[in-house]
Amino acid sequence: MMFVLVCVLVALILGGLVGLLVTRDPGYVMISYAEYVVETSLWVGILLVIGLLLFFWLSGWLIRRVLQSQRGLNSFFLSRKVRAARSATVRGLLIMAEGRWQEARKLLVSAAGAAETPLINYLNAARASHELGEHQVRDEYLLAAQESTPGARFAVGLTQAEFNMEEGQYETALAILLELRKRAPKHRAVLGMLAETREALNDWQALERMLGDLKKHQVMDTAALEALSTRIWHAKIMDPAHVEQSVKALPKTLQTDAVLIQEWVDQLLEQGRPDAGRLSEEVLRMSINKEYNAELVLRYGEVDGGESAKQIGHVNGWLKHRADDPDLLLTLGRLEMRTDQLAQARQHFEASLAQRANDTVYAELGRLCIAMDDQETGVQYLLQALSGLPQVPALQNA
């Protein structure tokens, strides 16, 4: 209230002073331009100048307000377009999850122009086209994705490689993935896809060199990595040109893999190499010494390592730690048959049979007894070996 009174008082004083000055001397102002002349008092001229200044200030203020309103209006309409594009993108992704590729693609492409992240729209439109088998259209959307967003080349390349792999075009995928790996050597998705591609192309040497990176960057869990390592060594072992060198270089974790060792033995024996028996015996013995395995023990009795007496000694050594093991007794009997120790072989076969009834042991005893001129007992054992066969109607009443 006090401030208002002060302002009124000041205004009255100034007004009085101005009135006094106007009364004393109104002044004179003349403006002449060409043939035009404007004459007025000084005080009227001052008021006109002030009026003009106020006019220009108000005009500028109005222009600024109009421009601000226009920007606000534009922002409002743009915001609506962005929200609509976002909504269409979400609907398109949901429809994609349902496998409705055609509808999803239409929504995603229509929203791409106003979308905040057009890369997502175009990549998923490419995915929908891929699922529809429209590969040319798919590639067009991949190109649009790359052009829509700076730095999108990596994501587009990864998607392209994925499509190539799904189509079985592993050579094309490999070229893309190798280029991506140069740009991002530690990228887990790139490493995983590269490993899958090289396995599909049977590029086992390159895949073996990747094992360290796959483990270091945790691309696979331990079980998957071990399974991959086994497949690599399986492929190397099954290569006739490198069968001997491969098995000698087996990692410790695979030296007790019964399936792998048996496949290696089969491969070696199939080649008919003169030293196949000796090498097979060495590898089987090495694996059994590291970790007992019944399947490998039985296979050991089938392999002729060239020195059956030494093989018998090894089996007897294992029996000291596994007395009455039926598989070891069967293996020992087979090796003794090979060295014409028929009585000892029969004794060990019967000991194996006492521990566990087995058609294979019955068969071995049958042919052994026949070889020892005990025809009747041999036939009985052979019939026992056949007892596991299913009955057929013609023989049920025989």
Q: Topology, pairings included?
A:
Layout: H1 2-24, E1 29-33, E2 36-40, H2 42-97, H3 101-112, H4 118-131, H5 135-148, H6 153-166, H7 170-183, H8 188-200, H9 204-216, H10 222-237, H11 243-248, H12 258-270, H13 276-290, H14 294-302, H15 308-321, H16 326-338, H17 342-355, H18 359-371, H19 375-385
Antiparallel strand pairs: 1-2
Helix pairs in contact: 2-3, 3-4, 4-5, 5-6, 6-7, 6-8, 7-8, 8-9, 9-10, 10-12, 12-13, 13-14, 14-16, 15-16, 16-17, 17-18, 18-19
Q: Can you put this structure into words, describing what you see?
A:
By secondary structure, this protein is mostly helical. It has 19 helices and two strands. The chain has a two-stranded antiparallel sheet with strand order 1-2. Helix 10 packs parallel to helix 12. The termini are far apart. The relative contact order is 0.03.
Question: Can you summarize the main beta sheet?
Answer: 2 strands, antiparallel
Low-confidence stretches: 394-398
Please state the oligomeric state of the protein chains shown. single chain
**Mean pLDDT score:** 83
Portion of residues within helices = over 70%
Alpha carbon gap, first and last residue? 131 Å
β-strand number: 2
Shape by Cα distribution: rod-shaped
Give me the strand/helix succession. Answer: HEEHHHHHHHHHHHHHHHHHH
Name the strands of the widest sheet in spatial order: 1-2
Computed structural class: mainly alpha
Percentage of residues in DSSP E strands = under 5%
Rounded to an integer, what's the Rg over CA atoms? 47 Å
Count every helix, treating DSSP H or I runs of 4 or more residues as helices. 19
